[in-house]
Amino acid sequence: MTSSNSRLSLIDIERPGNPDVFAAEVRAAALEIITRYPAGQSRSALLPMLHLVQSEQGYVSADGIAFCADVLDLTKAQVAAVATFYTMYKRKPTGEYLVSVCTNTLCGLLGGDDIYRALSATLGVGMNQTAGNPDEAGSITLEHAECLAACDYAPVVTVNYEFFDNQTTESALGLVKDLQGGKRPQPNRGAPLCSFKEISRQIAGFVDDRPESRLAVATGQPTEVGVKLAQQKGENAPGYPVSHNAGSSADQPAAGSDQADAAAVAAHNTGARDGSSAHDAPLSTSASDPAAAASTEPAAHPDTVGGAKTDTGPDQGELFGKGD
Amino acid sequence: MPLTPVLTKRFGTKAPWQIENYLRLDGYAGLEKALTMPPDDIIAMVKESNLRGRGGAGFPTGMKWQFIPQNDGKPHYVVVNADEGEPGTCRDLPIMMNDPHSMIEGIIIACYAVRANHAFVYIRGEAVHAIRRVTQAVNEAYARGYLGDDVRGSGIRFDITVHGGAGAYICGEETALLDSLEGKRGQPRLKPPFPATNGVYDAPTVVNNVGTLCSVPYIVLGGAAWYKDLGPEGSPGTSIYSLSGRVKNPGQYEAPMGTTLRELLEMAGGMSRGKELKFWTPGGASCPLLTREHLDLPLDFDAVAKAGSMNGTSAVMIFDEDDSVVQAVLKWTQFYEHESCGKCTPCREGNYWTAQILERIWTGHGTLADIDTLLDVSDNILGRSFCALGDGATSCITSSIKYFRDEYLALIETATDRSTVSPALTGVSA
Q1: Domain identity same for A19 and A53
Q2: Cβ–Cβ below 8 Å for B89 and A151
Q3: Global pTM?
Q4: Residue (of B251, B315, B245, B302) closest to B273 by Cα position
Q5: pLDDT of residue A15
Q6: CATH number where A111 lies
Q7: A54 and A135 both lie in a single domain
């Protein structure tokens, strides 16, 4: 446990901050944030606005504080009080990449602590310190993070908050080596990597809307493991009572490669235990469907909803001696 | 118990987050049906289903909705607590990343029921992929007429604002979340008044968890009785059990409330390294630890409470005999110390001291008096803190001493200097 006076350095009497260092475009973005909230509630825009100034300077500076105060008609003390409360607002310039290692109990015991120590030793930096000049490409700020809500993929590391799952010391060291060498590995779940400044702008609500982001993978085995096991075992939730089933896709045969998915859901809706309507469905292949993001779907989980069910029967659950 | 995917049923299908795929997979059918019903009937239906909040406390959702005063001339709001950060909990992010429209559909139904026109989704700032995906999904919903003016011919306008947080576990506490949403430090408010009457912007507000709202469209489609019958008496519906730790196939297993750990372990292929189960949490770090003797405990709200723990977020973290319970508790306590908002003294100071005592024990410098001191300090945090964060912080300490006092004693009595392996990797910055 080390403490630091840098926590208090946001308000500097010698350098009170200049709201005008930000371009007109930034002010326009700040005003746009305000419109997301009801009239008269502009202060709600403060958290996203702090992410916005961070996206310009790589941290929340005295200038950023002054800017938010100016736009929202708050005092700088009010803004600084908020900026210093939250972990994600950085007080020093952050590198091109913020590498966060989860060292909460679960990830920590499964290897997160070792990963953090190895990265710290290799990069030669400690918590919230930056290897390299923050303004230069390949610079990395290291931190150990609290639970990142990906415990089923433990131990996890994030780069600019995108998930790199099931890391080992070796894979994490390789990851930072790639980043330092100018490469941007694809996150396991998440959009293609961008810089810390760019991701801060996304957190402010100006999200990346490119196709590779819209179609970016969101699952891996742990996310789907329960659903897939249910399909293998032919288990399902009881279907809706018929009188409640209005509007269900069970009555609306789906077409083409979409049939398998639709049949699976229809099986749920009707309580069909064997998913028989899926048996005859052609396997959908992402390759045949340009909308299915062939390049971003990992081979480990193609759309096998219909196929995975083929060999299961209605009594499969009984084999496990649990009945239902 | 069988697996019963309802909330997770679209996981693994083709890009279920895109509205055309969601619509094909039964999407927005619950909303279409809800809009044909009087709002009060929807509240009655959710109440009848006995849906209980999935954020940890298990409060009946229908009752929460019913508390919103009607015809009061004030704007009403729905706020989604998507600040998933309870250690071990990893259920809401997969839902938002894979099936964001099911949450949006639940939000619109909730808005319609409590006569709100504006909802806020407060997503933790680190969850950037969820922020992106929910934002894109909200934009799609506007484009298709599920948000905006005159939604599906109802004559009603609904808006959703996606709001990213900035890294603070305390903002999962609903009133701290509301303060944070208002652009303030995220510190809890004194209750009463409750958010139902004085929530965001001092207006009547429903605050619901992601999993809670995602359940709503299915209740509307299947009916209260169908939903109730999915789980045992008192804990209706399914639960997404999030298994993590020393288990062969960690992940999301959706099964009826009341499934046991023995059943879950069987689904997940057993322990990961051939060791015996030692301790586990039934619902995140803030729930008292359980042990091997609780393998057959039905994991629902009432049975887990009876066993001295909490169902919480149904985040099941599993540890085996090679894991040190003292080390685990130390790291959790350092988490609470770091995340304590500082508003109340018992939590701010208490966690500061318990973390130091635990570190002393773990690094081989503990004394026999330390165990009593830990219990005494915990006793002064529990029930004396301003909010549930402080109470929850004591759970792992008191339960671990209850079940594993010998392990504490062994560390103290052998008193080997372990300072070189100090796990102090959480907490304040350098």
Answers
A1: yes
A2: yes
A3: 0.89
A4: B245
A5: 73
A6: 3.40.30.10
A7: no
Q: Does B260 touch chain A (CB under 8 A)?
A: no
In B50-205, alpha helices (H):
61-66, 92-98, 100-114, 128-143, 174-181, 195-198
Which segments in chain A show pLDDT lower than 50?
1-8, 244-257, 271-324
Closest-CA distance, B275 to chain A, in angstroms, reads 14
SS3 B303: helix
Residue in B60, B100, B51 with CA at minimum distance from that of residue B239: B51
Q: Do A202 and B131 touch (CB under 8 A)?
A: yes
Span A112-156, pLDDT tens digits: 999 999 999 999 999 999 999 999 999 999 999 999 999 999 999
Q: How many other CB atoms are found less than 10 A from the CB of residue A12? A: 12
**Lookup: tokens for A6:** 């840098």
Q: Is A222 exposed, middle or buried (0-12, 13-18, 19+ CB in 10 A)?
A: buried
Task: Please say if the pLDDT value at position B179 is more than 70.
Answer: yes
Chain A nearest CA to B425, separation (Å): 6
Same domain, A54 and A136: no
Q: In terms of DSSP bridges, do strands A97-102 and A140-145 run parallel, antiparallel, or are they unpaired?
A: parallel
- Residues B109, B216: contact at Cβ < 8 Å? yes
Question: Which among B90, B142, B169, B271 is the top mutation candidate for probing chain A, defined by the most A β-carbons within 10 Å of its own β-carbon?
Answer: B90
DSSP, residue by residue, B233-280: TTS-SEEEEEEEESBSS-EEEEEETT--HHHHHHHTTSBSSSPPEEEE
- Among candidates A18, A132, A114, which has minimal Cα distance to A68? A18
Nearest residue of A to residue B244, measured between CA atoms? A152
Q: How many structural domains comprise chain A?
A: 2
Which CATH number do you get for residue A14?
Answer: 1.10.10
User: In this predicted structure, what is the pLDDT of residue A301?
Assistant: 36
Q: Is residue A204 part of a domain?
A: no
Range of the domain at A108: 97-194
| A126, A218, A261: residue with CB nearest B129 | A218
Same domain, A68 and A105: no
**Last residue of one domain, picked from the residues A83, A110, A125:** A83
Nearest to B428 among A1, A44, A145 (CB): A1
Question: Are both A15 and A61 inside the same structural domain?
Answer: yes
Distance CA B147, CA B138 (A): 8
Closest residue in B to A107 (Cα–Cα):
B245
Number of H helices, E strands in chain B: 17, 9
Q: Given A1, A86, A225, which is nearest B251 (Cβ)?
A: A225
pLDDT at A312: 30
Assess if residue A121 is contained within a domain. Answer: yes
The verdict on a CB contact (< 8 Å) between B428 and A245 is no
Same domain as A103, residue A190? yes
Model confidence pLDDT, tens digit, residues B131-151: 999 999 999 999 999 999 999
Residue identified by tokens 């909200």 is B138
A265 domain residue, yes or no: no
Out of B16, B135, B166, the one facing A89 most closely (by C-beta) is B166
Question: In chain B, what residues touch A199 (CB-CB under 8 Å)?
Answer: 128
Separation in Å, CA of B373 to nearest CA in chain A: 21
What local confidence, expressed as pLDDT, does residue A242 receive? 78
Domain end position, chosen among A194, A229, A263: A194
The answer on A103 and A78 residing in a single domain is: no
Nearest to A135 by CA among A44, A227, A59, A74: A59
Strands (E), chain A: 97-102, 129-131, 140-145, 157-159, 162-164
Residue A226 domain-assigned?
no
Choose among A145, A147, A222: nearest Cβ to B250.
A222
My answer on whether A107 and A184 are in the same domain is yes
Residues B91 and B242 sit within 8 Å (Cβ to Cβ): yes
